Amino acid sequence: MKDEKPSSTSPSPSPSPSPAVRSESEDGVGLLSPKSVSRSSSRERWSTEKVEAIKEACRAGNRKAVVELATSKDGLISDEIRKEAWPFLLGYRTIPHEKSMSPTDIAEARPSWKTLPPHRDEDQVKLDVDRSFIYYPTNLSPRELKTRKTELLDLIVEVLRRHPMLCYFQGFHDICQVLLLVLGPIHALAAVEHISLLRIRDFMLPTMSPTSDHLQLLYPLLYSIDPNLFHHISRTQPFFALAAILTLYAHEIQEYNNIARLFDIFLAMGPVFPLYLFAEIVLQRRDELFEIPDDEPDILHSILSKLPKPLDLDDLISRAASLLEQQPPESLSTWHKVSSRSVLKTSRNPDKSPPSLSYAEKLFNQQWRELERARKRKAIFKAIIKKGRITLLGLTLLVGISAIGLEFYLQKNGTCIDSILESNVSPLLRRLLAGVGINTGNLIFP
């Protein structure tokens, strides 16, 4: 029987009004106020005004304003404005007139990556790049496609060689593909470095444990909003969200405009936001999920692992932002298990100045050592348990064989067990004798 939807489910905010007219922000930057489109003479004028507001906010260093604009309908509008806004949201600049430019945007600032030692994962990178650009762009000639793949391969390999501690994962190329298409091969390098070390660093560690910590936040989040839905799907592990979370949905979304729109909000918000977006997707599929029996976890997993189509991204983003405000990750029961060096915590507030890439590398190494210590402790514990079991098994066999030999001897000589067992035989011995079929009779043991 389908469960009734509780009133505690994430509130359904009214549709996001579309900004149309300007107002002054606290920082004096002209912003687009959330007014209806009808108050603007045309959608083209509205888009033009929004683009100008985004540019002004970026140049004024008003990140809060850019985040609000990225969250509102249609996000950052176009790739042209994303070229300026995405680097700003990631914490570095590419605007030529800026006085302080990131060294990662100046090719001459570092030696050629081609002179650096090869990364251990380059063979896998080549295999994945060969399978890239499947869904977009759709108008490439074979020659252009080959050029794009070469650019993508060089981009990924350069980042891995410059930061050799990073571990490549399948799907990383999907993220890099989006950044390459929007920013171009020159500026995509800095973006991939920043997103790798400051946003998805947990996914590029040598083990899946930190990734699992991300996924383990999903069920407490769902429980806080809809306990009945949580119980209905809880027989399956939350790994159905792995592909979407791991690749920032780039492996799951097949439409270029949609994945670019999602990256607007992912770069504007913290690393936890993709999980909140997935939670909203699950909540919106409530009726569909309750049609599947809760004792069919495999079917539930299969359904949950595929994103529904079509997705109303603006609505999902608005709801996920409200959910994040309503139930911040600090309120979730599994938050304390997340490492203090995880990007979930070190980049929890993206409005603060992001750490440098070198500091992010230090966090990476610290977290890796933390994982290694945990792995060694676990291995030692397993060894102790295994050794303890072997010792107990040997003792049990020894006592058992001795008991069988004793029984055989007594039967051969016609001696009753009652006549030789003293009244203070321990309960442990009695249980061992009973375990091999020797009845100790009515003897009473203390």
Automatic annotation (TrEMBL):
What name has this protein been given in UniProt?
Rab-GAP TBC domain-containing protein
Looking up Pfam families in the UniProt record yields: RabGAP-TBC (PF00566)
Q: Which GO terms describe its biological process?
A: endoplasmic reticulum to Golgi vesicle-mediated transport
Instruction: Extract the ranges annotated as region (Disordered).
Output: 1-50
Q: Report TM segments.
A: 390-410
Q: Give yes or no: UniProt keyword Calcium.
A: no
Alphabetical GO CC annotations of the entry are: endoplasmic reticulum membrane
Q: Which Gene3D superfamilies does the entry mention?
A: 1.10.8.1310, Ypt/Rab-GAP domain of gyp1p, domain 3
Biased-composition ranges, Basic and acidic residues, are 41-50
The alphabetized UniProt keywords are: GTPase activation, Membrane, Transmembrane, Transmembrane helix
Q: PROSITE patterns per the record?
A: TBC_RABGAP
GO MF assignments: GTPase activator activity
Looking at the record, the residues that make up the Rab-GAP TBC domain are: 76-270
Q: Which SMART domains match?
A: TBC
InterPro entries in alphabetical order: Rab-GAP-TBC_dom, Rab-GAP_TBC_sf, TBC20/Gyp8-like
What top-level branch of life does the organism fall under? Eukaryota
